[in-house]
Amino acid sequence: MYTKNALLGKKLVLLISLFTFFLVEAQDYSGYNPSSTMINDLVHTKLKVGFDIPNEKLLGEEWVTLKPHFYPTDSLTLDAKGMEISTVKLANGKDLKYSYQNSKLKIQLDKTYKKGEEYEIYIKYTAIPSTVTQKGSAAINSAKGLYFINPRGEEKDKPTQIWTQGETEASSCWFPTIDAPNQKTSQEIYITVPDQYVTLSNGVLKSGIKNSDGTRTDYWKFDQKHAPYLFFMGIGDFAVVKDKWKNIPVEYYVEKEFEPYAKQIFGDTPDMIEFFSNKLQYPYPWEKYSQMVARDYVSGAMENTTSTLHAENAQQKPGQLIDKNSWEPVIAHELFHHWFGDLATNESWANLPVNEAFANYSEYLWLEHKYGKDYAEEHRAEELDGYLNGGENFTKDLIRFQYKDKEDMFDAVSYNKGGLVLHMLRNYLGDDAFYAGMNLYLNQNKYKATEAHHLRLAWEEISGKDLNWFFNQWFFGNGHPKLKVSYTYNDTKKSVTVTITQTQEPKFQFPLDIDIYENGKANHHQVWAKATETNTFEIPSKTKPQLVNVNPDNILLAEITMEKTPEQYIYQYKNTPEYYSRKEAINKLADLQTSNPLALETLLQAASSDPFEGLRVFAISQLDLTNPKVKQKSASVLEKIATSDKKTLVQAEAIKQLGELDAAKYLNLFKKSFESPSYGIKAAAIEASVKGDKALGKELADKVDDKNPGKDLELAIAKALIANQDNSKLDLISKNFLNLLMYAKSQQEADTYFAILRTIMSGDYPVETKNIVDSIVKIYPQAKKYSFGDLMKQVMEASLQMKQGALNINPSNNSLKKQVSMISEGLNKMM
Fold it and tell me: Which ranges carry the Peptidase M1 membrane alanine aminopeptidase domain (predicted)?
């Protein structure tokens, strides 16, 4: 499962600061959540399903084979949420007594069954996801399990689709099962759909038979074992683009508009399979690999075995892909789950990081392999920011049984911190031992349910090292080191004494890299800090160091405070090769740019010629163009970057800054830049033009003829329309309302967007109202973790009052009645 919590969290923090809401909601982690007790074991699940699409119902039959786990039993309890049960009997025809209440189907078996003795139950049922009562979370914003998208064709330009989402325990919303991650079952499924639709499920499509009523029945079979939450079914009018890895079919299910670009989006998948198979020395373990893109998906993406489901953000145009395939890390993440998560599965939600930490870290591994270390380190820096931005993250163990709700496990601890911890372990063990341990873990635990101790034992067996100290700190503990670092040089001893003080509790022990720079050369040292308040290390140095660089590659997950002079930061930028060291220097030099000419000169050097485009973008973004001296020195540099840098996103950032510097002066440059095929550059040109000539900004925005240009370009168009008080595309503006609000740089700008809200909510705008309501309801589970969850409610309540006022003026307007109902339903979902 891939979520966008870290990025969303950062946006929400910006929104907090904008509206000065600072308190964080207290978290309650009391109470132990055990693994699911195994009384009966799933063996095999056979399903036959059809659909009443307009009424959003699944008509199902199930044959489920089970056996007692150890103790004899004469009863069976299945999870079955939001269903009508019509028949329960043995597969041989004998009726069984049962009760169904509180989402539990309790069945009295015909006799007592002993360990190893299989039995098969037949169930006929109707699944009605609209009646499911379990709620979603910040990570997975709905838990209905089965989703009908535009089932009655009421939404223009939106396809009709059906898809499922099983994690955490929502597969039992569309078929009765033991919905626990420590269960494993094989499966087969017959799916009957209107013939114009294609289907996708786990395993291999064995047949497709057309029926006399205009439907078709597809038969999918999956012979291996996996957890119930990984069951999947996807249906819709998709184009299927075929690819392969060796003799394994690889497929991409996309909307037909994106068929020409499917291989640009997903085409690295075979190379990823090859790369991960080689790294793990464990070939991709399944019969096929398909990826489908769904509308209105409730999270980021989901690793359903052999059949990953992606949110619609995965679908990108060449104008976006020329800048960056923003979905590439997600593609890697879900693929890696097919080893860590699908093959070896967390035995409880408390152990979710044995799935998600690895999938998170696979993003780094792939980016490092394909684009180099700087690119991967930039991604890891974003993960670190996501973890550090949430202060409540510091109180959570990585493996934790004391969660309030299992959904709370899908956070920046399980994901971000988990990946950062694995990076530390990789560097401690070395690559060979790190990957060999992963291979051993997979071989020992394939098709099984696992916990973190299995990982520790595998790495210990391979490396011969005791790793309890590491796991106790990083897996079964919380927080991270917070260090104050200082040093002195002793000319007599020819040595540097480095003092490290831990200010947090509990204290950590850890290896730490320290680079001592003499005569332009780094001498690398690794020291071992004990779990004490103060550690002192004496390191030889023939001359007084030009720079002492602690944790240069930021391998240790820590917050480090160390005083350096402006000259040292300039030296650090110019002489250190590591991404983190260069970025830290750029960050500090940005603070000095208005007072130190050499700092500004170095910052501009970074902006124009750093070897990594990400740091060029960062340096450009840090220029303080409100300062006359910075403006004067930056103008020619930014002009050159905007027109000649080899990377489109670097050009785009320079264009944005020229808009801040003197937009009216550079209008011709913006017009010329808009002709670039890059959507990033087009978006920057529109935004920059608006600052110098609103009409030109709108003129450029009107030239965009792509219905789906992506978030950045849509935001730029929305800003141009708003600046020109043009309400002709309120649909587009309303779709981007929350993003506009989150990126607002001032209260005045935010007020402008609230004025748009008042316009929509005071009139008859059904599509626009739905866009805003859907976006607020979707963001609310994350927003309510912060004190401004109340703000979201207030926005909805005020919207309801305004819309009700419009209805009072036009009481016979059925459209307004539906909009009032829509907002009311949205508010109910937020309760």
Answer: 269-474
C-alpha–C-alpha distance, residues 371 and 375, integer Å: 6
Q: Is residue 136 part of a domain?
A: no
CA distance linking residue 818 with residue 796, whole number of Å: 15
The share of the chain scoring above pLDDT 90, in percent, equals 88
Q: In sequence order, which residues have a C-beta less than 8 Å from that of residue 155 and are 6 or more positions away?
A: none
Residue 18: pLDDT over 70: no
Given a cut of 80, whether residue 9 has pLDDT beyond it is no
- Phi/psi class of residue 296: alpha, beta or left (left: φ > 0; alpha: ψ in -120 to 50)? left
Q: Kindly state whether residues 350 and 465 are assigned to the same domain.
A: yes
- Edge-to-edge strand list for the sheet holding 104-113: 73-79, 104-113, 97-101
Q: At 180, which helix (H) or strand (E)?
A: none
- DSSP assignments along 462-494, one per residue: HH----HHHHHHHTSS----EEEEEEEEETTTT
Same domain for 509 and 539? yes
Q: What is the pLDDT of residues 153-168, one digit of tens each?
A: 998 889 999 999 999 9
The per-residue pLDDT for range 92-126, each reduced to its tens digit, is: 999 999 999 999 999 999 999 999 999 999 999 99
What residues have CB less than 8 Å from 560, skipping those under 6 apart? 483, 485, 550, 551
**What pLDDT is recorded for position 791?**
80
Stronger pLDDT, 249 or 24, i.e. the higher one: 249
Residue 419: name the closest of 460, 449, 456, 382 by CA.
382
CA 201 to CA 234: how far, in whole Å? 7
Contact (CB, 8 A) for 731 and 743: no
Per-residue pLDDT at 667 exceeds 70: yes
Q: Both tokens of residue 816?
A: 């307004």
Whether residue 390 sits in one domain with residue 368: yes
3-state secondary structure of 251: strand
Can you point out the beta strands (E) in 683-760? none
> Do both 534 and 456 map to the same domain?
no
Q: How far apart are CA 385 and CA 9, in angstroms?
A: 10
Name the β-bridge partners of 76.
107
Q: Is residue 495 part of a domain?
A: yes
Name which residue leads in pLDDT, 30 or 353.
353
| Residues 604-658: tens digit of each pLDDT | 999 999 999 999 999 999 999 999 999 999 999 999 999 999 999 999 999 999 9
Number of domains the chain is built from = 2
* CA-closest candidate to residue 406, choices 472, 343, 351, 339: 351
- The residue among 528, 525, 592, 588 whose CA lies nearest residue 552 is 525
Q: Is residue 523 part of a domain?
A: yes
Is 203 in contact with 221 (CB distance < 8 Å)? yes
pLDDT of residue 745: 82
Residues 6 or more apart whose Cβ sits within 8 Å of residue 372? none
Q: Report the distance separating Cα 413 and Cα 5, nearest Å.
A: 11
**DSSP β-bridge partners for residue 254:** 239
8 pLDDT more than 80: no
Assess whether 445 and 515 both reside in one domain.
Answer: no
Structure tokens at 2: 């891939």
What integer pLDDT is reported at residue 156 of this predicted model? 87
d(CA 191, CA 202): 12
User: CB–CB of 186/227 below 8 Å?
Assistant: no
Residues 458 and 431 in one domain: yes
> Directed axis angle between helix 747-761 and helix 789-809, to 10°?
40
Section 330-355 average pLDDT: 98
Please state, in angstroms and rounded to a whole number, the distance separating the CA atoms of residues 511 and 701.
53
Query: Can you give the CATH number for the domain in which 389 is found?
Result: 1.10.390.10
pLDDT at 4: 52
pLDDT band at 61 (very low <50, low <70, confident <90, very high): very high
352 shares its domain with 422:
yes
Residues 349 and 467 in one domain: yes
Q: Is residue 370 part of a domain?
A: yes
Final residue of a structural domain among 474, 500, 529: 474
Which of 231-235, 433-437, 728-732 has the lowest average pLDDT? 728-732
